[in-house]
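User: Here's a protein and a ligand (flavin-adenine dinucleotide). What would the complex look like?
Assistant: Let me lay out the input and then the predicted complex.
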Amino acid sequence: MYDVIILGAGAAGLTAAVYTCRKKLKTAILSIDVGGQTNLTSHIENYPGTGPMSGIELMQRFQNEAIGFGAELIMGKANKVDKIENGFRIGLANGEEYECKALILAYGKVPKSLGIEGEEKFMGRGVSTCVTCDAPLYKNREVAVIGGGNSAVEGALELATIAKKVYLVHRRDAFRADEATVEKLKNSEQIELVLNSIPSKVIGDKNVDGIGVENIVTKEKREIKVDGVFIEIGYVVDTSFVQHLVKVNEKKEIIVDERGNTSCPGIFACGDITPVPFKQTVIAAGEGAKAALECYRWLTGGKGAVLDWTH
Ligand SMILES: Cc1cc2nc3c(=O)[nH]c(=O)nc-3n(C[C@H](O)[C@H](O)[C@H](O)COP(=O)(O)OP(=O)(O)OC[C@H]3O[C@@H](n4cnc5c(N)ncnc54)[C@H](O)[C@@H]3O)c2cc1C
């Protein structure tokens, strides 16, 4: 049995691990990937003290520190959390189970899906939720980006530097991104705007061959030939497997107090998974540190020295 299991190896979870390990708590981090959403930014320049670098490089440093202090990293997707005597049991999608005395939830957000035909079939094989990760695969090819916020607009601009043609499919006739960015979009020769339109299906047999779109004003339906589809419509918190234990708000974020306690004693939460405002890497890291110290305080019945500089 671990003292602490941390679900998620993003900025919040890896920082929490540094803190729990320095308190000599036997710690495991269970995660689908290492680095989380920060990996998606090619250039992070608002994480103080490091200087600008890629998100992947920054998160590699987080990982090295967490592992260096003794955290055990277990790769897998958690899909079950049960309360057991003296702790919790976590089930992974591959059937493995792990037990801990205290649990820190730091598993961030997952990309929203469109729920259309072909999306799941081609996910990771022509359908992507990460332009920064997958754009290089589409050199001189044709792609569609779905969405109208900053991620979609910036994604389309990034893809236009690599792909031959980019269709930007947006359900409205205006974009929510800032004006300077939208201006760049309109001036790009590679980008074709498909406005007032929603995707209806991803078409293909072995590979993606195109997408079906419907104009919601004229009701006209058309098929656009593309090799890849990028879904950039935002992120949601998946609380389906913890909702029976912790309270969530209307956005399904896990409600915490100022120390990271959830409504369930022994379960803590931190980072983008909570309602804490201004979702940023530095904020997730700070919240991870706070939740870990509170977890230590809880495990030691309030007797452990909580301030790191006291020993
Ligand atoms: C494109 C993009 C660019 C950004 N740019 C910046 C920036 O420049 N500066 C900045 O400060 N912030 C930026 N952010 C925001 C920042 O990345 C997030 O606020 C931060 O990553 C939140 O950290 P987190 O640890 O809470 O969650 P995440 O980073 O989302 O990490 C969650 C972790 O949990 C894992 N996980 C998820 N579900 C499960 C599960 N069921 N079981 C096990 N593991 C699971 C994931 O694999 C991941 O490792 C950006 C975000 C995006 C999407």
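Summary: The chain has a mean pLDDT of 93.
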